[in-house]
Design goal:
It contains 25 helices and 20 strands. The chain is of the alpha/beta class.
Length: about 625
């Protein structure tokens, strides 16, 4: 049996700090931690195919280590509220997958993992410990027990056997706790011996066989090292006791109970839909194949995959565009960029050539640079030409205007705007969500992550593939969205107002807004001068010069030195935000100067230097206009 033991707290924390906190559901629930944990869990099961899995969690109560050392982990800050709010969801996902959750009062998740790993290894089972905690290194035992260490983020892992631990640390897994006791562990608030880093600790352990040998041979060390070791021996011995994981804790769990078992797939899909994890449906099917070999990725939804042909020769590109012009029906279009959509180099233009066969052609950057291709594109996109369907068409229009000098006049449906008109209560209108809702189809789960976000899929695809998939998706949405617009009486608003406005805004962004730079610079300088004047007034009122943007120093001035009465306390001290300062008005003249300084500084940074930094070489600001 292959047993996978997962440190639930460790992986959830890694997911939370690796992914942006603006990942939310339509209702406002932050989901970055639970999404990352779920994606990591599915990837782990898919990639390593364990027979049994358990997730261990820490309990909030103190452990025996806290009883032994009251400063143990005392340096750790409380988890952010938006992380704590997601821990219940992490458990809910784990329970829905019928994966056992283990926790014991007085012990840590590491001890549960150590006990189960030891039992399984002794029974001849293979064990894979998944964690971001280096304390687990001591558990590695060839050939049975290995550690899959999460180095950072959500996808960077290292698989360690005994040789790997020795290469990573310089000592064997059995000696790791003694090595760590010398080196110390800041994350657990366990200081090491001053002057003893990782290399020195490993050399001492290997030379003398462990702590007993080291302290029995202090006379062999340099005077400075000898004194430091002797002074901190008690702390090192204490560190060692605390770092040893418990391998025989009382745990009423049979290994056989950890085997993967069937779960209610409909309930899991329902939970994923509630959390808006629709992109994880396909990965769920990969990690947990159904017994009959059939997979349903959503509520009967099929996965939409494109057959992609890259066109990199001018004659072929021109011939394709002429054939598309002669075709009938809506033309699904999308694009790939090497950076922000509409504001970076256009890498490719995806055009659906046969929606029924899922065929999509992608014109690459080389052919898009050719004048004859651009002329053919202009004919295809001319007014009265082939109707075009796109999702959030403004960036595409802007790139075609600025980079290809092609004016897209034949836009007939913008699926994002149609989604907005049909359901204005939604907070976002993602293509994948609309595709599932209106066409009962899904985009593949292996799409590259959005710009600035991490790829949790473990799969890399060429940039033209997601663009081709999106083009196919908007083509599939054309029929149902047009029907819905007609049924709800939104056709005129979409066709006569929203679609024409897309082109107007795209041209505004391309042409830009003219700016009188000298006047703007004069405004910035006057605001900066007022900031200086207000700063001097604050210093005079305080009786000393200080950084007025320093919250810590400001607290000291206002509440300690001047004796003002605070009205709100945060985790780090009394609040000095604008609302709190307004309540202090009248207690001291410094408050009025502070409030005005902040107002002027915000104006200067936003409308003074801020706008000046946005002025391009053509003397214009190419702003982004949000239509919805």
């Amino acid at each position: 049996m292959k047993l996978m033991l997962i440190d639930g707290n460790s992986l959830t924390y890694r997911a939370f700090f690796a992914l942006p906190t603006d990942m939310t559901t339509a209702s406002g629930q932050v989901t970055n931690a639970v999404f990352g944990f779920t994606a990591m869990l599915l990837n782990l099961v898919r990639d390593h195919q364990p027979d049994a899995v358990a997730v261990a969690f820490d309990r909030p109560e103190p452990t025996f280590r806290h009883d032994r050392l009251d400063t143990y982990k005392a340096n750790r800050q409380a988890a952010p509220d938006i992380l704590r709010q997601q821990m219940g969801l992490v458990r809910q996902v784990t329970e829905a997958l019928e994966i056992p959750i283990l926790e014991v009062v007085g012990f840590e998740a590491d001890d549960i993992i150590a006990t189960l790993a030891t039992r399984a290894g002794d029974a001849g089972d293979d064990v894979l410990v998944v964690t971001g905690d280096r304390d687990a290194y001591q558990l590695v035992e060839d050939p049975r027990i290995k550690v899959l260490y999460n180095r950072r983020g959500v996808s960077d892992y290292a698989l360690y056997d005994e040789a790997g631990i020795a290469e990573r640390t310089g000592v064997t897994p059995a000696l790791y706790p003694q090595y760590a006791a010398l080196r110390g562990d800041p994350s657990d608030n366990l200081p090491g011996v001053p002057g003893v880093g990782e290399k020195t600790a490993a050399k001492l352990i290997n030379t003398y066989g462990g702590l007993d040998g080291i302290f029995a041979n202090l006379d062999s060390q340099s005077p400075k090292l000898r004194a430091s070791l002797a002074e901190h021996e008690a702390e090192v011995r204490s560190n060692h006791e605390i770092m040893l994981l418990v391998r025989d804790m009382p745990l009423d769990v049979e290994l056989s109970a950890l085997r993967l078992r069937p779960f209610d797939r409909a309930e899991v899909r329902k939970l994923f839909d509630f959390l808006e994890f629709r992109t994880l449906h396909a990965r769920l099917a990969e990690a947990f194949p159904s017994e009959d070999g059939t997979e349903v990725t959503g509520d009967g939804a099929e996965v939409l995959e494109a057959e992609v042909t890259v066109i990199d020769e001018v004659p072929a590109a021109v011939a394709l565009l002429e054939s598309l012009l002669a075709g009938e029906g809506p033309l699904g279009v999308d694009a790939a960029w090497d950076g922000p959509d509409g504001r970076s180099m256009l890498l490719g233009l995806a055009l659906v050539t046969d929606a029924a066969a899922a065929d999509v052609a992608v014109l690459d950057a080389t052919v898009l640079a050719d004048a004859t291709v651009r002329a053919a594109l202009s004919n295809l996109f001319a007014g009265g030409g082939r109707p075009v369907v796109a999702h959030g068409a403004k960036p595409l229009m802007r790139s075609l205007l600025g980079q290809c000098e092609v004016d897209l006049l034949s836009l007939s449906l913008d699926t994002m705007l149609a989604g907005y008109l049909l359901d204005p209560a939604e907070s976002r209108y993602l293509l994948a969500d609309l595709l599932l809702r209106y066409a009962n189809l899904e985009l593949p789960g292996s799409d590259s992550a959005p710009s600035g976000q991490l790829d949790l899929s473990g799969d890399e695809v060429a940039p033209e593939v997601p663009a081709a998939r999106r083009a196919l998706a908007v083509a599939a949405l054309a029929g149902p969205l047009n029907a819905a617009l007609d049924a709800q009486g939104m056709r005129s608003l979409h066709d006569d107002v929203e679609v024409p406005l897309v082109r107007v805004l795209a041209k505004m962004e391309d042409v830009g807004v003219g700016v009188d730079v000298p006047v703007l610079r004069q405004l910035s300088e006057s605001l900066a001068a007022e900031c200086v004047a207000r700063t001097k007034a604050i210093w005079e009122a305080a009786g000393e010069e200080f950084n007025v943007n320093s919250t810590v120093k400001l607290r000291e001035i206002l509440f300690d030195r001047l004796g003002l009465q605070p009205n709100k306390k945060t985790k780090t001290g009394f609040s000095t935000d604008a609302a709190s300062l307004e309540k202090l008005l009248g207690q001291h003249p410094i408050v009025e100067h502070l409030l005005r300084y902040r107002e002027v500084e915000k104006l200067r940074s936003t409308y003074g230097e801020g706008l000046l930094s946005e002025v391009q070489d053509d003397g214009r600001i190419h702003a982004t206009f949000n239509q919805t």
